[in-house]
Design goal:
Length: 206
Amino acid sequence: MSTISIVGAGTMATAIAGRIAKAGHIVEVVTRDPAKARALADKLGSGATTGTYGAAPAGDIVILAVPYSGAAAAVADFGDALDGKVIVDIANPVAPDLSGLVTPHDSSGAQETAKGLPAGAHVVKAFNTIFGHVLAKGGRLDAFIAADDAEAKARVSAFLESLGLRPLDVGGLHMAHTLEALGLMMIGLAKNGAGTWDFAMNVEID
């Protein structure tokens, strides 16, 4: 059992935190609004705690569960408090009209967020290809991950396994761009061909 910190208290934060609590880990919820953090911690039970926004998170793994539009500001607010932490970026940096990604063509949301982190922090892209309500239902889902640091990737892989997910490594952090494009494709599929948000992307390995 370990402590996992999660920054945010929205739909995805709630779904991920619920899965973490059910797996037996301690969840530390951190938001700008202490009341929202406390409400989610109380809902989770299982010893969930709240942390001080901007202070050093209790967990070595910190899930940045905020919209991409607020990611840079959140990272700046924590500053050196994130040094040495593994930062899990879950954001899909999609345009409001879903016309594409809002990141530079040669970068990704994860890479842009990483630019604001201390040198000792390592970003791992994960969770952005799983819809929150599907994650909350349980079941063994495929979780695609991308990162440059091998140790950080291994730690997040083990963490995902503990949640009952199957981590699938797609390569270095530059591959986060592809995962974010996949996230956008899934939104388009939900709105068009699938006609439902109740699906997940899974890999069948023969």
